[in-house]
Design a protein that fits this description.
The chain is mostly helical. It is built from twelve helices and five strands. A five-stranded mixed beta sheet has the order 1-2-4-3-5. Helix 1 packs across helix 4 and helix 8 packs across helix 10. It starts with a helix and ends with a helix.
């Protein structure tokens, strides 16, 4: 039992070490990555930013799996016992030579920190989902379904348009917004909100917001702002496909923004994100959905380096764990 508990404890510490490494890498590459992503189409940019939000966790779990792979391969007999190739003076991330449970103060502090952060992420995921669904039920109780427009109408003079609900989202438009816009502008606006529903952007932002807790705050806040803007721009492009005019969608955004509407604290609101950036993007040429060669090269390197140096990473991690848990 103690050996099994030991390998679990050392694995948890290993995940924490690599998550911290991922957070540091995120802080280092944030600016050049953000610069490269501005060249992408909004849909591709939103997907890349979502992955970047999860990068510390992905890196932490991925490198931990690579680190444990020699142990697993030796356990199932596919390779020789790798522990014979180095000394016995440090803990082993090995199923054949599992360490006893570690009780040092530093190790317990690290385990508590990792477990606490993982619990915080899980709580944020659950809270975001519950809050979104609670807001959806409240909005549904205050609105009625308009089959002609395929959305829910709120009987309020305030110009509002948003989608609410973390899992299954719905589009909401107020009476004030219907009266404010021309029929073509209203169609473009509703197409924009439907795109949010189709893309599951509310759920995307909840998940990205929780997973980005592994980043440093100075990385997390602009990252989430860029992601929200990329989602809005992607839906603006979807609205262009329905409206048939980039100028019409830009005019709709400006017209709504001039009302000075404070966006509701629920869902994704049409008037929430920066107007200037969205309008400028619409009036520019349509973006090209391609990934720069430098980005592809970096992704390939990120995949190949741990695989090629997996055994060395395993031994280095064992040595580091030995220093941290003395």
């Amino acid at each position: 039992m103690s050996a099994g508990l030991g390998i679990l404890q050392f694995t948890l510490i290993t995940v924490g070490i690599f998550i911290a490494l991922g957070a540091v890498c995120g802080a280092i590459i944030q600016v050049p990555v953000a610069r490269q992503l501005t060249r992408l189409a909004p849909r591709t940019q939103a997907a890349a930013l979502t992955l970047f939000a999860a990068m510390p966790l992905i890196l932490g779990l991925g490198l931990t799996l690579v680190t444990l792979s020699p142990s697993f391969l030796g356990y199932v007999g596919l390779i020789a016992d790798h522990c014979d190739t180095h000394g016995q003076g440090h803990p082993h991330l090995c199923l054949l030579h599992a360490p006893a449970a570690v009780n040092s103060a530093i190790a317990w502090l690290m385990k508590a920190a990792v477990a606490g952060l993982l619990a915080l992420v899980l709580c944020n995921l659950v809270r975001g989902a519950l809050q979104g669904n609670r807001q959806l039920r409240r909005c549904l109780s205050l609105s009625h379904y308009d089959a002609g427009r395929d959305c829910y109408l709120l009987d309020t003079p305030r110009p509002l348009a948003f989608c609410a609900g973390a899992g299954s989202s719905r589009v909401f438009v107020s009476r004030g917004m219907v009266e404010l816009l021309s029929p073509r502008q209203l169609d473009a606006l509703i197409a924009h909100e439907r795109a949010h529903v189709a893309r599951r952007d509310t759920l995307r932002l909840v998940v990205a917001g929780a997973l980005s807790l592994f980043h440093f705050p100075r990385v997390r806040h602009p990252l989430l702002a860029d992601l929200a803007l990329a989602c809005e721009r992607a839906c603006d492009e979807a609205a262009v496909q329905v409206a048939g005019s980039r100028v019409l969608v830009a005019e709709t955004i400006i017209k709504v923004a001039r009302q000075g509407v404070t966006a509701p604290a629920t869902g994704l609101a049409f008037a929430r994100n920066p107007t200037v950036e969205r309008v400028e993007a619409l009036l520019a040429s349509a973006p090209v959905a391609r990934i720069p060669a430098s980005g592809l090269a970096a992704a390939v390197a990120l995949l190949l380096v741990p695989i090629v140096f997996g055994d060395r990473l395993h031994h280095f991690t064992e040595t580091l764990l030995g220093l941290l848990t003395r």
